[in-house]
Amino acid sequence: MGEGKRVSLSLLPLSVVFALIISLASLQLGASDSIFYESFDDNFEGRWVVSEKEGYTGVWKHTKSDGHEDHGLLVSEKAKKYAIVKELDEAVSLKDGTAVLQFEVRLQNGLECGGAYLKYLRPQAAGWASKEFDNESPYSIMFGPDKCGSTNKVHFILKHKNPKTGEYIEHHLKYPPSVPSDKLSHVYTAILKLDNEVLILIDGEEKKKANFLSSEDFEPPIIPSQTIPDPDDKKPEDWDERAKIPDPNAVKPDDWDEDAPMEIEDEEAVKPEGWLDDEPEEIEDPEASKPEDWDDEEDGEWEAPKIDNQKCEIAPGCGEWKRPMKRNPAYKGKWHAPLIDNPNYKGIWKPQQIPNPDYFELDHPDIEPVAAIGIEIWTMQDGILFDNILIASDEKTAESYRVTTWKPKFEVEKEKQKAEDAAAGVDVLSGFQHKIFELLYKIADVSFLNAYKPKLLDLIEKGEKQPNLTIGILASIVIVFFSIIFKMVFGAKKPKPVKVTEQTNNTAVAETPNDQGSSGEKEEEENEKEVTNVPRKRSTRREN
């Protein structure tokens, strides 16, 4: 029997090679240690249920990813609410060992304002039907991209039941990673471990490590504070919180004139030579004529529109000359007594701490099992494609899916993007620039920069779109960074360290479920404007 001919993969079209890889991957992964896997190779209808609740009018479509033979679940319309859910054959426990949640999203038209996250639903109340899925359906974990305005994050939210009160509370991961700004396929992975560690990966790279039971990592903390402010404790009427007070012995100086104006005419100013006193700044347009259909009785007396007087263009100025204003050296403003230390100052009052009746201790979070996977989002963009949704019991399984289902697509998309950028004359990021922007994104995720994160991300994203500005963007980030450090170290004048006095020795901090001053005298500030001898700029307003 003759030897069969070998076919080199290099001679096959790239799309065919990619299809072969996906086919082989499906065979290999079918027997892997996955608890749930949805590839969307087959149509979702009949397996996933579209919500029939009011307001969810967005149309889901089973379609190919742009440039691939691989199918996914597509958000097909802009500015719509979407909801779709898949009930699992049996609920999956996430607390008996390592649990991995993973899925792919491709923002084919970008994401300016909208979500692209998944909800892992806990068992629903009796009588609940999939078609009733909406934003009120209880979930155990919410995970994935969300971006709009100042929000730019990969959410990880645990909805945990307080064993004391029975209340379910949303616990948000603090300082989550940002959403990639391109239009390529990305894979998001959350790894939940028995030691209470949770890892967030994007494209297989660790972006965030946290501990479920750490108050530094979740807001509000899963374990509440042991103490809380006593709601019945009241501040004594004679409690003085003013660190500084006006000096009662101070007297306004006799020469202090509060009525002196801030500005006065400059008596030394001289009218510029060539000033045209008798010329108006604007004149009637000599070329204008009254419209034929103008009715003086109905429209009033017609007046030609005004135009700039050309004579004033070459002269220093026209019209009545007036001396410019200058700062009044005698101006002192309203007098205030200087501030002195308050001898009766007791510090900022706080209620005493009492034991928190809702406090509890945990060795591990009590994560509810997952009975269904849902996508419930509102988005202004279409073209969001979900694919390869996975729940697995070990990290290697998730990694094998990334390597075989996501990586080939990503490499094809990346090369295609490079070719399109080159053809369009767009500067392509060099390897060095890639490293710079990766570093900048990590800097933007630093916790103490959180208040400035939206501005930093905006700068970074602009830099990615215009690589020739990399150095300028980097310089801007450095300036912002050091400005923040400078403000922190040499910021506005601060009073001496404030002593906080409580009516108890218990100094534990109570839980504050929401994001977050002191009273004191403030000196009146006035903005003073310097005015030079330059004549006032004439008005360019025209009356038509």
Q: Please, how many helices?
A: 7
Care to count the β-strands? 27
Q: What general outline do the C-alpha atoms trace?
A: extended
Structural class: alpha+beta
Percent range for β-strand residues: 25-35%
Largest sheet: 9 strands, antiparallel
Oligomer classification: single chain
Question: What's the rounded overall pLDDT mean?
Answer: 83
Q: Unreliable segments (pLDDT under 50, ≥5 consecutive)?
A: 1-12, 14-19, 21-31, 492-544
Question: End-to-end span in angstroms?
Answer: 98 Å
Helix content: 10-25%
Rg estimate, integer Å:
34 Å
State the main characteristics.
alpha+beta; 544 residues; 27 strands; disordered C terminus; disordered N terminus; 19% helix; 8-stranded antiparallel β-sheet; 9-stranded antiparallel β-sheet
Write the topology of this structure.
Elements: H1 14-30, E1 34-38, E2 49-50, E3 60-64, E4 71-75, E5 80-92, E6 99-107, E7 113-115, E8 118-121, E9 139-148, E10 151-161, E11 168-173, E12 185-192, E13 197-202, E14 205-211, E15 218-219, E16 227-229, E17 244-246, E18 263-265, E19 282-284, H2 296-299, E20 306-308, H3 310-314, E21 325-327, E22 339-341, E23 348-350, E24 353-355, E25 370-379, E26 384-392, H4 395-423, H5 431-444, H6 453-465, H7 470-490, E27 500-502
Parallel strand pairs: 23-27
Antiparallel strand pairs: 1-26, 2-5, 3-4, 4-26, 5-25, 6-12, 6-26, 7-9, 8-9, 8-25, 9-10, 10-11, 11-15, 12-13, 13-14, 16-24, 17-22, 18-21, 19-20
Helix pairs in contact: 1-4, 5-6, 6-7
